Each structure stands twice: as structure tokens, then as C-alpha cells.
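Reopening closed ticket. The problem is back. First fold of the pair:
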Amino acid sequence: MSISEHELRRKILEALKEVRSKSPERNFTEAVELHIGFKDIDLRRPENRLRFNLLLPHYVSSKDKIGVFADDPHIPALRELAEKSEDNITIIDKVRLEELKSNLKLAKKLVRNHRIFLSSSTFMSNIGKFFGRMIKILNPRNKMPIPIPINEDPAKAIESAKRTLQIRLHKVPVINIKVGDIKMTDEELAENIVAVLEAIKNRMPKGWRNIKSIHIKTTMGPPVKISLMAKRKKKIAA
């Protein structure tokens, strides 16, 4: 089974129109989610599991929630950015990290309330010393921080993070992931979804044959199925 990128994009655009028609306007910005089911793949074998970061063509959320474990050289620029940005940027310095290490409930809440995390590379290089208990909270939730080189502009790293998805297929043959929000155009959402599906398909042992189902939905809306089966041409009567 195979499907061209053009045909896949067409099917996704059709599904997105149906998603919008079945999703009444809410008093908050709904996420657009992609649900993928897998088949004929043994996740007990490490080589069949997935864990990677994917840079999308467009942002994941118009107002994102990003946590940054920041070392001194990055903190001034991050504070200035957090004041100006519409995104929810939380800065976790060494003092805040010590508080989190001693308060497991607060640490879990922080991780739960942020979509993605970054970290000054100097924190990452001393991960055992600085993170300790945090690793056990971040890792199972697939939210390990993306390192920021010490000489890189944090604003650039934040912009990249807004377009980054952390994808993981581990114990259960399902991936449920946010790929955008309802404020985005159908074309932007379709480009993000195509990027995700192509990246996952290319990492599957049998490509599309390992993908059992694909659904798109909003946060509170019903799922809409995308079929990978190409339409058969109708026979012309003699």
C-alpha cells in the first residue's frame, strides 16, 4: 500500500473541513490532535520503538507553554523575552530547580502544564547534578529538555521549540499528539500533519503498512478518520 504526498494532503484537507464543521466555536482555543494507531509491529523490540524530535513547517500552538531550565548567561534574555512574548515561558533557574527537587507535586504540575522544555546546555552537561529527581518526571512524559548552546540566542531556540514535536512510540501501539490549534489555517495544519505522518512512516519497518488508523480531532470534537486507501477509478460502461 502506498499513497502520494499530494493525495495524502488532499485527504487531510477534506478531513479538516469535516473536523471544523463538527466543532462548534468554543470560548477557548482548541488544539488540533492527530491520533495514529499501529499494527504488525512488535514494540518489545527496541528497534521498533520511536523517539525523536520533529521540526514542523508551522507552530504547534498560537500561544505555547514552554519551560526553560536556564543557566546565568541565558537568564537576562529569557526574562526580557518572557515579558514581551504572548507565549507562556517559565524560567527555571538553579534556585527554582532546588525547590522543585524537594517538592514532587509541584514538579509534576510544572511538567504537566508545559508542552515542551528547553535547557541551557550547561545544565544538560551536569544533568545528574542539577536534575536528579526531575529526570524521573520528564523522561516518562517524553518531555526531556532540548539543549540550547550557551552562545545561542534563546529567542531563536524558543521559536524553534514552538515548531517542535517530541514524538514517542513505546509500550502502546498508539501515538496521540497535538499538531496545531483551531486558529491555524487548514493549509498550515495539513502541512504539519503531512510532516508528522511522513516522518513516522519513514521510520516504520513496513512504511504505511504498519499504520492501522489515522484520526484528526479538536480537543472536544469527535474524531474524523483519514483513509490511506486510494480511490478506485470507476469503470466506464461499454
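Second fold of the pair, where the issue appears:
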Amino acid sequence: MPTITINERTLSNGLRVIAAPDHAAPNVTVTVMYRVGSHDEHRGKTGLAHLFEHLMFDNTSTGLDKQYDLYCTKAGGSNNAYTTFDYTTYYINLPSNQAPLGFWLEAERMRDFMISEHALETQRKVVIEEIKQNVENQPYGKWRQGMEETAYEPTSPYSWEVYGSPDDVAGVQMSDAHDFFSRFYRPSNAVLTVAGDIEPERVFALAQEHFGQIPSGDTIKDRTTFDASMCRYGTHHVINDDVSLPAIYVSFHMPGMLDESNYAAEIAAYILGSGRSSALYKHLVKEKQIASSVGAYFDKRHHASLLTFYVFASNEDITPDMMAAELLACIRGVVVDDVTFMKAVNKARMSLAYELQKNEGVADSICYHTLFYNDPHMVNTLMEKYVIQTKEAVQSMIDACTSEEKWARVDIVPNEELEGA
């Protein structure tokens, strides 16, 4: 894979600006990532980070209300955003001759708090409806919130889902929104990356023109904290839901995303739960025939990641305990050999390569590694990170998932099953 060219500069207000030129196609991606997510909220005030993602599309000066999509569409581009536990990202894809528009629109978001009461009321309703659709009324959708509560102590800022509580979102006042913006939406808490058909000096000139006069603001103090005592082990939670068959979700705590062992954990997830050749599929679906669907994935978080497994029952006679027992039996029986190891490494590298073929993926990865690792050049060493892992390291990650005393387990069961228990 070709080396990604990295050029960087920091504006006087603290905004880090990264240019990654690639002239293969006449388009660019302008991405701004802020170091703020649901981890920065407090119990009783959850959902603010995700709500703010929505509000920022209304955070424009007079006369530009709700014009982001219109401006992008007219210019032949698109835009979107997403929120995680640890960061929030906004990105705009545009033809390269429209690049200045991306800088202008993103600077509009950051420049000042310009959200109206009407916008706040509207977006509160939109987010609450999104929670209903994607969590409360979605089959098996309640498992994520259940897992946060099961895997973390209530004192942990990871103990609620990114969406937050509908009641908390409904209670957000203008003062809450203003304080959140003032605290986190500032140049010194963000990274701007532009990837695609544009010269670095043009990037830096446009960044200075549009972002350079935005005040840096005060240093963010008293961020929410996390320590190992906030992780819960050996926990089990049952959720009653409108589903036809039971499913289980089992998570094991892993180190935070800055730990090098994360790469071995990702490879372990591929071995255990990726595709029809995975250990879980062969054991639970093909051999035991107790599951219709299985999988594993690595959920990276700044302070404490999770390696999560899921199993959906194949018929109504299969109980959560049966699935949990066979899940553990499968994990305990996995021995990482050369072929299995290299296949998983190649899958991880192919997935990364696919993302880095697109300007959007390049910009996102550079922002992420700049924000948390202070190293935009790390994007060029990620492939090697997987190659240098060992079978022994991956086996160790798998062996860490072989005990009920270490898991956090959530069962989703049909209504009638819980009522008859």
C-alpha cells in the first residue's frame, strides 16, 4: 500500500491542521474531529454529545439555518457526522474545486454558539425519536445499554450508551448546550484533516483564513476520569424484549485503545467471530446447531475496551445458558495455529486497506491518531502493527475470555419467557 503523504501545521489558536494530498481523483474530504464524546458527560446529563452532533448542523450564523445539506448538495458533495464514547467527527466530501466551501462550513460550526431555542427543541425530539427507533423499538436493540450497565460501575462514564437517556435528552436546556459548546467545541480540542486533491499550502492557507481567528478558549479542566475499579466482572443481566428467540451478548474487558495489545485483540476477534470459517460459526452454528447467527468484535475505547461476542438462538428450545456454555467451550478450545493466525492478520489488514483507499477513511484515521496518539504519521504504520503481532499474543487475548468470572453477560429473552420464569 502506498505511503500517505502527511503535512502538518498548528494554528496559533491550537487547531492542528493536517494535509494528506492525493491527486488520484478530483475530490477532497474535510474532516474535523473533536475530543469529546459520551464519556465526557455526567449521569443525569447523558446524551449531550450525540445531541450536539445534531445541533451542530444548526449552529450557523443568521440566514444559514439548516443549509449545510443544501450547500453541499449544490456543490456536488455530501456531509455527515458521528459520535462515539470518546470523540465526535464531522466530515464533508466535495469536488476539489469546492474545497473552500468545506473549510467555511466547518468553521461556521466551531466559530460561536448560535443555536436557537427552536433548533434545540427540534433536535431534542429528533434524537429521542432516534433512540426509540434504534434502541427501544428495535429487536435486540436494548442490549447495548444493558451491556454498559453490566460491564461498568454506575460511577463510570462508560456506564451509559452514546445515545444517552431519552429523559436526559428531553431535559437539556439552552444553558446546558451553551456550556457544552464552550467547554469542548474549540480549536485546541480538535483536529482538522483534509485528504484528497489539494496542495498542502492551499490547505494551510484556507485553514488560517477560516479558522485562524477563532479564539482558542480556556484549557479544558476536570475531564471525567476513569480507573480500573469502574470495570465490573462476573456480571449477568437479563432484558425482557419483544423478540421471538433469545440471544446473548458476552463482553470481556480489554486495555484502553492506546495499549499495543489492542491489535492482538482485534486479530482474536477475527479468529473467533468473523465469517463462516470463524471458531464460533463452526462450533455453534454448524456443529452444535444451536445458533442462527454468531460474531465477535473489538469495541475500542480510550480507557477500557471490550471484546464482545454475540449468539442468537436457532430455535425456541435453545436457552441463554446453553448458548453461554457452548460459547465458553468454543473459546476454551481455540488453539491459534499459523494458518488461522495469518488468515486473521490478512483480514485485519484488508479491512484497514479498504478504509484507507478512500479520502474519507484517510482523513478519519489521521484525525483519530493525531487526537489520541499525537501522531498523524501513525496512519502509515498501522499495517505493520498487525504484522508484528504473534500467535502467542493473540492466544493470550483469547485465553483471557475463558472464564465466567471475567465476563459481563446480557441476555435478551422473549417477553413470555421472562414472565413464565
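Update: turned out to be a display glitch only; the data is intact. Residues 164 and 316 are 32 Å apart (CA to CA). The first strand starts at residue 7 and ends at 10. Please close again.
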